[in-house]
Design goal:
- The structure is a single chain.
- By secondary structure, the chain is of the alpha/beta class.
- The protein has four domains: about 240 residues, 4-Layer Sandwich (Metallo-beta-lactamase, Chain A); about 150 residues, Rossmann fold, CATH 3.40.50.10890; about 60 residues, no CATH class; about 55 residues, no CATH class.
- The protein has 15 helices and 26 strands.
- The strands form six sheets. A seven-stranded mixed beta sheet has the order 6-5-4-3-2-1-20. A seven-stranded mixed beta sheet has the order 7-8-9-10-11-18-19, covered by helices on one side. It has a six-stranded parallel beta sheet with strand order 14-13-15-12-16-17.
- The longest helix has 17 residues.
- The chain starts with a strand and ends with a helix.
- The structure holds zinc ion (ZN) (2 copies).
- The site of one zinc ion has 5 residues, from helix 2.
């Protein structure tokens, strides 16, 4: 009844393109591939899907849509209203007026039946204005309902121009299948506001020490966030300072002006009193930098440039009156720049490991398909005990068809079972368990035997043996490595004997890792005020 064909999973520079099959319907989820021959090769007459849903306007999700529309003009393509407005940015060699209006806007939070028995509902996903999580609900002839949630790129925290995904809207949804991005793997990052402050401080330091700052950045999303940050952060408001914006970025800013109704209340309010971006009066001034016109370097300025801009037009190498700040992408090595005064900074716009697992535990799906991110980061997620104990996890490569069988109750992942016969030798001081050599042929053996230390416990009349990994060893003996301020199982009131003892937690009774997390977390070290009273 449910399948996912992973045309392209976004492991590296490739974008996202997935085909979900629900009952008789085929739904193409994003089309971020440059070459759409994957979708046309088999049979040029055959339309590759019944409908197409695009989560957001970033090229790794949208760049193939125009070619797809040209190949199959009848194929309906849908997205949120803001996304439809931003989509033309993907085909910058055409004038916006030359690109046909092929994408149909759908409203937030209104289930719409797009095919017989199949409804689609849009939820804001944070990350970028217009970014959407799609909920697909299919009612089969036997009245059984099937639900699939595809998050696209997703962020739970608020950014300057887009609010985070409202977790409350999705709590307890229990989709059969969750297709979710895992760009940041299990890594944890400080709160977005903290990262913003850190960056603002660095820029402020540079300016006050007489240096100009160049920020080469992706033109859609991060550039506008930086601009809003610089316009509204107390380090810069009222300051006699010019912020220049390169033309490629400026064009995206112009498009953003059409999205005002989508922005958070604080931004709408700001826009009532002054222009959102272009402002030559209120300090700091924001100015369009015309091509070929270099800002005069009489006093320090800030330049928001396109990612691939030629920096040598502004700054000579060894010139120490400039600082170049490059954004980092977790899971990817930052590009090396030959300029001496290049530094990197991080402004997150995807969920970190904590956010991802938090969302998953709130949704409680049967199957999880992880896409988007480096394969090792995705593997970190599928290796998380708190996830694979509880859900069926998939992390397909390109071209893989994932079958998603749905049971009425949770189906424990089936492992091919092999029995081994061993021997017990009871000595005076210890017991030796001998097992046949063939057990080491199993691919799981190296993980089991990682440290050579096992943990054994009774389970009824049976004895269960489990290998201890380096990581677990570290956490068991080195609790000091985890700060008591971190919200994690190891710091939770209900963490007993490496298990969760909180009956209200989804992880209740399960073995949890020290660094795991669930929304029912209660700090062992910092009791909440109600408990103190
Ligand atoms: Zn994105
Ligand atoms: Zn993406």
């Amino acid at each position: 009844m449910l399948q996912c064909l992973a045309y392209s999973v976004g492991h590296g520079d490739d974008g996202i393109c997935l085909l979900a099959r629900i009952g008789p319907h085929r739904i193409l989820l994003d089309c971020g591939i440059t070459d759409i021959s994957l979708l046309t090769n088999e049979n040029k007459q055959l339309v590759p899907a019944d409908i197409v849903l695009c989560t957001h306007a970033h090229s790794d999700h949208a760049q193939g849509l125009l070619a797809l529309h040209q190949a199959f003009p009848q194929l309906p393509i849908y997205a949120s209203e803001a996304t439809t407005k931003l989509l033309p940015l993907n085909w910058s060699k055409f004038a916006v007026s030359e690109i046909p209006d092929f994408c149909q806007p759908l409203p937030w939070h209104s289930p719409i039946e797009l095919c017989s028995g199949l409804t689609v509902e849009l939820f804001p996903a944070g990350h970028l204005p217009g970014a959407t999580a799609f909920l697909l609900t299919y009612i089969a002839e036997d009245n059984r309902t099937y639900k699939l949630l595809y998050t696209g790129d997703l962020f739970l925290s608020n950014s300057r121009l887009v609010e985070g995904l409202p977790l409350g809207d999705l709590r307890g949804l229990k989709p059969d299948v969750l297709i979710i991005e895992g760009s940041y793997g299990t890594a944890r990052y400080p709160h977005r506001r903290q990262l913003e402050n850190h960056l603002a401080e660095r820029i402020y330091q540079a300016i006050t020490s007489g240096k100009s700052v160049i920020l080469p950045t992706p033109a859609l999303g991060l550039a506008q966030e930086l601009l809003m940050l610089l316009r509204s952060h107390h380090y810069f408001t009222g300051r006699d300072l010019d912020i220049w914006v390169e033309e490629q970025v400026a064009q995206v800013c112009d498009l953003y002006l059409q999205l005002l109704s989508e922005f958070p209340p604080a931004v709408k309010n700001f826009a009532q009193h002054q222009p959102l971006f272009w402002d030559e009066k209120v300090r700091p001034r924001v100015l369009r930098q015309l091509p070929g016109k270099i800002p005069s370097g009489e006093k320090p300025y800030i330049l928001i440039a396109a990612q691939d801009t030629d920096l040598s037009q502004y700054v000579m190498n060894q010139d120490n009156s400039f600082v170049v700040l490059i954004p980092e992408t977790p899971g990817k090595i930052s590009q090396e720049l030959n300029f001496v005064h290049t530094e990197t900074y991080l402004l997150t716009d995807h969920c970190d490991g904590l956010g991802t697992t938090q969302l998953i535990h709130n949704l409680r799906p049967q199957h999880i398909v992880f896409v988007h991110g480096s394969p090792s980061y995705l593997a970190d997620l599928t290796n998380l005990e708190e996830l694979h104990n509880r859900y069926q996890l998939h992390s397909p490569g390109n071209g893989v068809l994932v079958e998603l069988p749905i049971g009425d109750t949770f189906i424990v992942p089936t492992l091919t079972e092999t029995n081994y016969e061993g021997e017990l030798t009871e000595l005076d001081t210890e017991v030796i368990v001998s097992l046949p050599q063939s057990i080491t042929n199993d691919s799981r053996w190296p993980i089991f035997a990682d440290t050579g230390i096992v943990e054994v416990r009774w389970q009824g009349e049976e004895l269960v043996m489990r290998g201890i990994s380096q990581r677990q060893l570290l956490y068991q003996t080195g609790d000091r490595f985890i700060s008591p301020e971190l919200d994690c199982c190891g710091n939770c009131l209900y963490y007993r004997g490496q298990r969760c003892s909180n009956p209200t937690s989804a992880l209740y009774g399960f073995r949890v890792t020290f660094d795991g997390y669930c929304p029912m977390f209660k700090s062992l070290h910092f009791p909440s005020t109600e408990e103190i009273e």
